[in-house]
Request: fold
Amino acid sequence: MRSIEPPLTVRDKIVWVGGVNILELAQQFGTPLFVTDENRLRDNYKRIVGAFASTYRKFSLQYALKANNNLSILRILRSMDSGADCSCIEEIILAKKAGFPPNRIIYTGNFNSDLELNMALKERVMINLDDTAQLTRLMRFGRPKTLSFRINPGVGKGKYAGLVFGGKRTKFGVDEKKAVEGYLSAKRFGIRHFGIHMMSGSAILEKEYFPRVAERLLKIAGRIAKKVGIEFEFINIGGGFGIPYKPSERVLDIQFIGKEVGELFMKLPSKLSLGTPTLMIEPGRYIVGDTTVLLAKVHGKKKGAVTTYVGTDAGMNTLLRPALYGAYHQVYVANRIYHRPSPENITICGQICENTDVIAEGRRLPSIKEGDILAILNAGAYGFAMSSQYNNRPRAAEVLVNGSTVDLIRERETVFDLTLHQKIPERLKN
Ligand SMILES: Cc1ncc(COP(=O)(O)O)c(C=O)c1O
Reply:
């Protein structure tokens, strides 16, 4: 047995997840199939919590449900004492269904409707507003116990332009000046408990970025607290912790980040009269990204003018990230892993009627045959979550592997799901 990349190992030239041969999984459950390794999920959670909490004990991790909303995954994380970061009411309902208590749920929407504001109040979750203008609307429905604002710290970083959420070109958050006005009016409305938040980008692999931007937020928080005359119960530095997608990329040094950020929280709040706030983070990708491999079956191969197309049953409807950002996902031919790469330039695509229907471009892989099973790595974050029924393709199934135990955690959709909410007016029947 040889480990290739978590959560995969190789035995007899075939890829395994945990104690399970993925060819057997593909046969039993069909493809495309998302296969999640429970032990990797638990390890990722423990590693990131340990990195922060060992330096600064007043720490809370809010798992970002948008990365992967599978209820079984949520239940595992909750059983390990995770909190939840929710971007809409539906995510709050999912989090509650998985057992997250309201006081461990933070709701960060943007351009919230009245209905959403009202429901967030009723659900008694922590409310984090993306704009100060929303406060007056929120107050029409009641007064939240705790309120925070999402700050745009003036800088941002992300692996792709679409993943930069701070700085000048983003719809998210408010600047420091506007935040001061927001907290002042919150105080006038009688709100007594406050937090502050930022989320400045995603898929970041530069370890130094995190303490740098955390220090920036702490200083912003210090100035706001002084001007407004409040303390912050929590300071949320967001998610954004990257994972290596390309073979050339290195694992993020989360121990360094936890220690450096933790030390800032030990040192700066007392200097800035910020009391002893809870250090909050809200990672998605770091926890679920590398837990999951997407299995796809090869249905054909066609020589084009500049590349050879390998067509599989997983396309942009199954894994959108390559089409959306040009994102890279490592691909293995799971049933012939150590064969030498053929000289062909390969483009792996799906069955969707779009030219953007690409999973991987410009790859050299062992010569691929119809019927081969491909393993597409790092599909746990924004994988199933971003999948769609485009071209009327039912969404894929998900299984959870723990050692040699395999559980189906989401059934494959069928044609029935495509018409589930459609209505035909009486006048069109007959
Ligand atoms: C507000 C907020 N928090 C947390 C996350 C999770 O980010 P990541 O998966 O990069 O950790 C996101 C992702 O878009 C987000 O928008």
Notes: The longest strand covers residues 292-303. The mean pLDDT is 96. The pocket of pyridoxal-5'-phosphate is lined by residues 64, 66-67, 85, 108, 199, 202-203, 238-241, 282-286, 381 (CB under 6 Å). The two ends are 62 Å apart (CA to CA).
